[in-house]
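Lab notebook page, bench 4
Experiment: in silico fold of construct C2
Operator: M.H.
Input chain length: 276 residues
Purpose: comparison with the prior construct
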Amino acid sequence: MNADLHCHSTVSDGWLAPADVVRRAAANGVTHLALTDHDEVSGLDEALAVAREVGITLVPGVEISVSFRGDTVHVVGLGIDHRNPELLAGLAQVRRGRAERAKRIGEALEAAGIRDALAGARTFALNPELVSRAHFARHLVATGLMPDVNTVFRHYLAQGKPGYVAHEWARLEDAVGWIHDAGGIAVIAHPGRYRFSDADLDALFDAFAACGGEAVEVVSGAHSQAEAQKFASLARRRGLLASRASDFHGESESAVDLGCCEPLPPDLLPVWSRFA
């Protein structure tokens, strides 16, 4: 079994259309794929249809943006009913915040001497409701200002840089609640990416467990081997299910291709045991 339970399409900040994400996953030998676009589920019907054609299991998913202790955390929902009205209303609320943030990022970059950044970012966002920092980064690379997306983030879009804009996303308990309302399983995405102290990370997982969160991405395209071992230990101590995910956005921007993550440690209970 080759499960990859977190990836993105052009519905959010991926480079491939939902159908092409599924086809690439199938070509790579993925058996169970979750498409988890940021705060959006409109690509799932297309993905589900192609998954049936190519013979892999598509797990309907979403990645919800959450604010916790002054930073942004992502919670993945797996096995959701993507037509659930409570989930859809919550995601629409988060997307409205995204539009406001994009406007403020554009203004911040203008103040830093980069003109028309919002208009440029919009040319990379096929979904006008989801203009993200990745789209701004791609625009700055396309203009020749920076060599690659990671460099743009380091110089302009990370916390403390000229284009960074603080923003309040969903509350953790609301995001987990929307996922549960839709019949899904809540997973903390790529915990190694958060700039938390060990105490803040413990507080995040305590709060996540208190509102019914079930799983953590132990193996992620964003994690080193040492980080995977750290989060495996955390899953064991807290009795959490373990997930495995590339967080694939596109060939040029992703450290790991679809289906190519390391396997989970064999003693952990995989999250796909709940729906495979």
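Observations: Strands lie at 3-4, 32-35, 57-68, 71-78, 185-188, 215-220, 241-245. The chain has a mean pLDDT of 96.
Next step: discuss at group meeting.
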